[in-house]
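Quarterly update from the structural biology core.
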Amino acid sequence: MPVLVPVVTAMLCCTSPRSERAPLAAALPNDNRTPAGVTIAGVRRIRLVVQRALWHPDADNGPSLQTEAVGEEGKAPMIPAPLIRVPVGATVDASIRNALPDTIIFSVQCGENCQDSIYIAPGATRPMPVRTTAAGTFTYSSALFRHGAVWLGSAAASQSAGAIVVDAPNAPPDRIFVVSEWIQQWDTTKAGDDDRLIMTINGKMWPHTERIHAVVGDTLRWRVVNISGDTHPMHLHGFYFRVDSRGNGAVDSIYTPDQRRMAVTEEVAPFGTFSLQWIPERVGNWIFHCHKAFHMSGFQHADLAEERLDYTLPAPHRPGATDADHAATMMAGLILGIDVAARKPVDGVVATLAGAPRADGTRSMAPRKLRLLAQRKPGKYGLHGYALQRGDSVPALDSLEIPGPPLVFTRGEPVEITVVNHLDAYTGVHWHGIELDSYYDGVAGWSGSTGHLAPRIAPNDSFVVRFTPPRAGSFMYHSHSEEVRQLALGLYGPIVVLDSGQKWDPATDHLVVLGFVLVNDNPYAGVNGAVANYGMRLSAGKTHRLRLMNILVDNDASVSLVGDSGPLTWKVVAKDGADTPVAQRIERAAKVTLGPGETMDVELTPKPGQYQLQMLSFSNVLITINVR
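Predicted structure, tokenized:
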């Protein structure tokens, strides 16, 4: 069952043989805490060199890769490249030396499609123009140049690239996380062959990425920098973050207060950036990760070790393996682990976070109880999906829905969901976008806290999840175990949380869930489980809400609404379950791009006619909408 992976089109570099004359220097992981260079007489002096290096993206004593890397002259190379960080208006004297046998193209603060690249011959040194006139987050990068063009070799790497930060006056402290990738076809002579994939944050892949330690009530400010050739929808478990800026590597748009919005998943484009701020409100273990399943899959450990595995098969169960082993080995790549501790008591009273969303009266309210069954059908791959037990009647073992049945909750009302595993493999469910206790978050062997970690749900076993949704909105639930395989086979579904006293009316409130659907054992993008001939009926003159959800394994989706006269308009009223700022709820072109893990609620009041909702991804779905 081939699962399509986006083709990397930028920052490709070589894997030329290692020189026999001298050992390669080891590239160190760069946590982006220490800026490069020294300041002399008010001028920041930076001297960089591009060279070949030996890189250990997993454990320090684990398998290695050879790649291009950047370091300061006289110091070890680093991955990602050294951080350039100066105050706005600073004078920078920077240069770059090419210690490679190839000419390189060097790009500074000009984004993905740079037109102002610097060509540096082998052994040559060129000035590196760093602009400091505007505050923001930017990128710099290099690529090999052969035969008159950027060399599109068999390996793709973005390790010889890094971040540039120009600080505004009195800027508060923050952290910088640089996302990079290394890709190489297993068989370079076979067109379309699968890839070896290595994804890192600040030079390391999970579980060797940095652990973030925070305390309830802390204010965390992060800059996310993508130096790879792919998009990355970055998802925070358990909490919302505020998006404060977005950039394309060349220009950074810093948002005014009325432009800032809340999200749980934010996609960053190739060589793009965004900054965020968030406040942890509950203790426990959490993760921040790319929501493309391949980008956080444990297959990367095998890929690094040059062990080609079949991701269409259930992961082998190792006797004696613990749930914590699962968290360490079944995930990899673009994941940060976050440990949130309780704030120390003040005068004997434990401090709490003022303003955190809480529902009144929930302690005395009995929870609504549900049984959600993870099921499979016989077949080559054994189609997976969820079924909801309604009453005492237990669904047949091969009955399921793709997407899973909509779970409709009410804000402030507690729920208790017993997840029953009828699969032939371990599983777990993540309640995507829901603010809940860590133990119920769904990452087996990690969610919870030391000594009380959430278990995997074994075949023919169950796990009880408890939470009280604190806000109304559109959310999702999906497998967080063997994500590539289980998402592709159908283990995903929508969640709708309504305000107190509100009832869900499917006549005006429509779910549009984009996910994988298997047809004759081949994967397609499907909407609400259909890959074609899906229709919707809307009443003219009424306001309708479309809850758009992308839960594809690894693919972005372009969503647009068109009529006979061309594109239409709608209002974006919510993103990831959070209402958009009032100033942004305006009529705009009815077209958005959603990365995996993103949801968006749009409203429209259509006139009579026939329209098409176009969902364009690795395969396309055209939904006919009849309005009468």
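The first helix runs from residue 299 to 304.
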